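Dear support,

I submitted the protein below through the web form. The confirmation email said the job was done, but the results page showed an empty box. After a refresh the structure appeared. I'm attaching both so you can tell me whether what I see now is the final result or a partial one.
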Amino acid sequence: MVIGLGRMGRAFLALAQNHRAVAAGYPARAAIPERLRAEAVTWILAVSDQNITKVCKDLLPTLRPGDVVLHLAGARGLDVLVSARDVGAAIGALHPLAAIATLEPAGSLVGAAFMIEGDAAAVDVARQVVALASGRLIVADAVDRAAYHAGAALVASGAVAIAQGAAWLLGNAVHPTPSEEDLRAATASLLWSVARNIEHLGPDASLASPLLRDDTETVARHLAVMAADPTVRALYRAVLARVIVPLESSGRVRPETIAAAKRLAQAESDTH
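What the results page shows now:
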């Protein structure tokens, strides 16, 4: 049972339905559905973080020992489901590491990574979900929710912000100006290739940068053409400052290159 028919709830329903798994979805604000069968039921709470505790408590009259209750919020732990555990249900926090942006058509969870924290029965259900998605499951005994959710948000929001800046730069660089569809394809192509590299090589080995050929002049030119949008330039500097860290520790580039890059990464160095 999926409670909540927002973007993530519909994605879970579509995943189940595409594999002909028994599943039903209910709006978060509707009355809690009656139990449809006597055997154990999995309840997936695809609701806002603030409503998880309330919806869980509303479910209590329907729950039976052996049921599994999962929520999907990366920023919340097991404490918001403790009332379900008190009546004999297993509980878990199952977070899809996937950005779902559409209601219609339903977003896809195929190939996604998921993180699960919870009781053994909840982990078993998570393994079944991930098998349907042909994804990867990370099983956690404990989670620092602030750090975990910040990491996920950094990719989900940060990649969008970078794509916005890249589309602005590419659109201004090419004449005639590419269509919106072409700019979407161009930025998505880069993001897909980076994602594939990270999957196979890891983040550090996936870096493509002028710094790897000790070229800081190109980096300086990049910063100069971003003068019209200080937010994009600040984003570029933040990226530059972060990629310097593993480059410096690994010795992959010359010390003088690192020193020049650090100066460029500091806003005070901008004289344009």
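Response: this is the final, complete result; the empty box was a page-load delay. The chain has two domains: 2-143, 147-269.
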